[in-house]
Each structure stands twice: as C-alpha cells, then as structure tokens.
Amino acid sequence: MKKVLIKRLAGFLVLCMIFPMAVYATQEKIDKVHDEIEDLQQQKEEAQQKAESLSREAGGLEGDLAVFNDKLAKITEELNVTEQQLEGTRKSLKETGKALKEAQKEEKSQYEAMKKRIRFLYEMGGNGLLEVLLSAENFADFLNKAEYISSIQEYDRMMLDRYRETKEVIAGKKQELSEQEASLAGLKEHQEEKQQEVAELVSDTSEHLNAAKKQLADAQADVAGYAAKLEKQKAYEEQLEAQKAAEDAKRLEEIKRQEEEVKRQKEQEAQRRKNANNGNSGNNGNSGNKGNSGGSGNNGGSNASDLSMLAALIQCEAGGESYEGKLAVGSVVMNRVSSSHFPNTVAGVIYQAGQFSPVASGRFASVLASGADASCTQAAGEVLGGRITIGCLYFRSNNGSISGTVIGGNVFY
Asked: Residue 325 and residue 309: Cα distance in Å, rounded?
C-alpha cells in the first residue's frame, strides 16, 4: 500500500510540474502582449499629440490664408489702379504723339513758306521795297504803299514768331513724350513686381497648406493604425486571459482532486495502521502537506521583507481597488503559501514564474524600491497576521468571461 501511495504521489508531482509549465507559457504570452499594448498605447498617444499639434498648425495656416486673401486683395487693387494709370498714360502718350506729328507737320509747312519768302526777298534784292515806295503817284499812294510794306514786314515777323512757337511746342511735346514713356515703363515694372508678388504669395501659402494637410493626414492615419493594432492586441490579450483562466481552473480542479486523493489515501493508511496496532493512534500522514486552510502558513511567521513584498504586490494588482479588494489579493498570495502546490514562502509565491504580470514587467520592483502606500501596507500586515478574507488561489481582471467572486475590477476563483 505504501508503494502505491508513493507511486500516486509521484504522479501527482509530475502533474504539478506539467500544469505550471503550460500556465507559465500562457502567462508569458499575456505579459508580452500586455507590454506590446502599453507600447502601442504610448505610440498612439504620441501620434495623437502630433496630430493635434499639426491640426493646430493647420488652423493657424487657415488664419494665415485669411491674411493672405486680404493681402492678395490689396495687391490686386493696386494692380487695378496701376492698370488704369497705364491705360491713361498710353492714351495721353498717343495724343501727345499725334500732337507732335501735327506740330512737326506745321513746322515743316511754316519752314517751306519762310524759305519761299526769303528766296523772294533775295531775288528782289535790297532795293525792291524802296522802288515800290518811289513809284507812288502821290502822297496818299505813298502812304498806302508804305502801309503795305509795313504789313508785309509785320506778317514776316508774325510768321517767324509762329515758327518759333511751333518749335517750342515740338520741344515741349518731345519732353512730355519722353516723360510719359518713362512713366509707362515704371508703371509696367511696378505691375510686373506686383504680379510676381502675387504669384510667390499664392505659391508659398499653397505649399505650406498642402504640406500641413499631408502631415496631418499622415499623423491621423498613424493614429488610426495604432488604434487598429491596439484593438487587435487587446482582443488577443482577452483571448489569452480566457485561455489562462481556463488553464488555472483546470489546474485548480486537478489540485483539488489530487488533494482529495491524497487525503483519502492518508485516511486509508491511518486506518490500516490503526488496525495493525490494535487501535493505537499513529497518524503521521500530515508531513509534506501545508494544508489548504487560511492562515499565515509561511513557516515561521512573517517578517519585514514579506510585508514589503506583499504590500508592493497588492499596490500593483489592486492599488486602485477598495480595501476589501486589497485584502483579497493578499489572501490569494497567503493561500498559495499555505498550499502544497505552490512555493511555501511569500517571496517564492510572488516570484514564481508566469504568475504575476507586474513582476515580469518590472513595475513590482519599482514599487518595492520606493515602498507601497499606507493602505496597501496595512492590508498586507493584516493578511500576514492571519486575516484571510477569501479562500481562492487565483484572481484576474474581470472581463465577464470568468466565473468567481468579483471584488471591484478583479474576479477571484
């Protein structure tokens, strides 16, 4: 019978080794996915901040665009005024050119007439007018001929003055024409500068707007991409959590079955010994079993190290939960210490591979180094002192897929 018991205990130990290996593998996947989710969440937040920054920048560019529209309107108005000035200058230039041609034509006509007059006087010689006067028949005729000669001379002076005036008009028109041509050239240059300013302003503003819109679209696409990946990873995490819960439940069921089998075998061995000794009690079957009842069960009582570690784990797993939730997490740890299927120390339970995500992520070490808060430390002290509020060996975040005792955001089973 003893050999059978040892054989069954050996099989029990093998099962205890096999189940944790499967559980550890799933928990490692959960920890990895959890880390990936945190990274994706951070990347999403960074992309969101970038998108918001670019959105504000694009909004600022829209304001710049309004300024640009006002500036463009003013430049266009200046161009319109310049165009009107150009049109007036062109018209004036045309009229001045026409007047110059007419003056030059008049000058030519006057010049030809004066040439004929001078030729006539030259041909008559210097005595022509004197002979006219001497040919007078009487004094009245003499006066008439003298007046005639005076009229001719007056006419000659008048024609000469008109010729001089025409020359002055021509010189003035030429000066005016030159000035108008210079003004026209200046207006054309100003118009070209304003047109270039408009082109550069439109190009620069459009380029900035298009670049900002593209960057904003890219950033928004990044946010959407990270959000999609995040949702996918969260769904995968939920799937792994359900798988882990199923594995925990299966292991818990096997633990209970094995404990019942061991208990039954011990009772049978005790009864056999009792019968063999004719009724003498000799039940030594409690060795190697820590029992599954609540209590400190940590082989010699708690110490400062146990208190610090348990308080840090409670803060990591239930820092935002009620005091009842903190006590429940601490109770799970101590229930494992008391169970023969888990390490028999607080440190051993907490650091057992694949059991608590904060230990794998490094958050537990950070809290342990800085010290847990007063509430978590108090809860850890009460649990170590024997206040076990729940008889479960496992707990997980409650997503509705696991049946058990729900306390706050966790479900205990």
From this structure: 17
Residues in the chain: 413
State the CB neighbour count (10 A cutoff) for residue 200: 10
Residue 396, strand partner residues:
411
Q: In what order do the strands lie in the sheet with 405-407?
A: 395-397, 410-412, 405-407
Q: How many Cα atoms within 13 Å fall on the side-chain side of residue 120?
A: 9
Segment 374-384 mean pLDDT: 97
Instruction: Please tell me which of 103-107, 225-229, 273-277, 390-394 the model is most confident about, judged by mean pLDDT.
Output: 390-394
> What residue has token string 């978590």?
376
Exposed/middle/buried for residue 338 (C-beta within 10 Å: 0-12, 13-18, 19+): buried
* 375: number of Cβ within 10 Å: 17
Beta bridge partners of 407: 410
pTM of the full structure: 0.45
The DSSP string of 9-68 is: HHHHHHHHHHHHHHHHHHHHHHHHHHHHHHHHHHHHHHHHHHHHHHHHHHHHHHHHHHHH
In the chain, pLDDT over 70 holds for what percent of residues?
81
Amino acid at 149: I
Q: DSSP secondary structure string, 352-368?
A: STTS-HHHHHTHHHHHH
- Structure confidence by residue, pLDDT tens digits, 166-196: 888 888 888 888 888 888 888 878 878 877 8
Residue type, 95: E
User: For the segment 39-51, what is each residue's pLDDT rounded down to a tens digit?
Assistant: 878 887 887 887 7
Task: Give CA–CA dist 50/47, Å, rounded.
Answer: 5
Tens of pLDDT, residue by residue over 198-236, are 777 777 777 777 777 788 788 888 888 878 887 887 677
- CA distances to 120, 138, 177, 254 from 146, in Å: 19, 12, 46, 159
> DSSP code of 325?
H
Of the two residues 372 and 122, the one the predictor is more confident about is 372
Strand partners for 410: 397, 407
Is residue 336 within 8 Å of residue 390, measured between CB atoms?
Answer: no
